[in-house]
Amino acid sequence: MIHGKEWQPLRDFIRDRNRLLVTTHINPDGDAIGSQMAMAHYLRRIGKEVVLLNCDSMPEYFHFLDPQGEIALYSAPEHEAVVAGLEGCLVVDISDWGRLRNLGEALRRHAIPLACVDHHIPTDQMGEVHICVQEASSTGEIIYDFLLDSGAELAPPIVDALYTCIMTDTGSFRFTNTTARTHRIAADLLERGAHYRAIYEQVYENNSKQRTLLMARLLERMHFACEDRLAYFSLSQELLRQTGARLWETDGFSELPRTIAKVEVSLMFTETREGSTKVSFRSKGRVAINGLAALFGGGGHKFASGATLTMSLNQAVEVVVEEAKKLFKE
After folding, report:
1. CATH number (domain holding residue 220)
2. Closest residue by Cα to residue 96 from 119, 128, 125, 134
């Protein structure tokens, strides 16, 4: 937890700039969008001009956080002048330039001053202000501390955004990043009027038929190894076409094997349109998997990490599963 003067560099960064971009990573999740919107609401309340641009579309079930559709999808021809006119940028829930894609390239090209707030293990030193609290359950938890320390009024949209951050990044308070303090923050947000039931319904009880059919197909195709302690499954572009599901609808699927008895580590392989393979590594909390992800150029938390491999889906499954099996031989 950060206190008092440790927040001053971020406060100074915000104070000295008027036109600010707030953005986050590719494949934005609840913590990413919630943190982005909470900061946007706060900045506007203190008189800042806020631009909301992302390098990737957000899942439809997070649209309730941005009811006016203010978050735009970055396009170089359309937004080059917008980026050039920024006085600063606040990046949330990411410490990796690569996960900002072409928007990150534009920020660097125009030398836009940058501040970063994140809770992941950093892969890059992003910006002149870089606040990373790895023990926090979510970036939303860090922003909650910053706003309270800054004497900000937690208006209803901010409360709901922060509650979404914490609820989603802790898996509804069941992952190992959940602490007693996480619950105390959630309780405070409830006392401030967080619409917890409506938020849960929007995020977890809003599945399309296509997402449900895809989930069923993936569960049917799940594989097990190492006396059922390792589970893995593959999502091909063909399976997406067959079910009619969209890629963003697979958010959360990497957690499915963690509900199975005996499974300690799970792997989800996703074929991209370009032919590479994304791998999501998950652990119940007794076997660290960030080292495994690092072997393939990835990273993340100790029990939740990811990597992208420049190889076909079948090749990636063969190579990664072979390495994953070694976790249990040790």
Report:
1. 3.10.310.30
2. 125
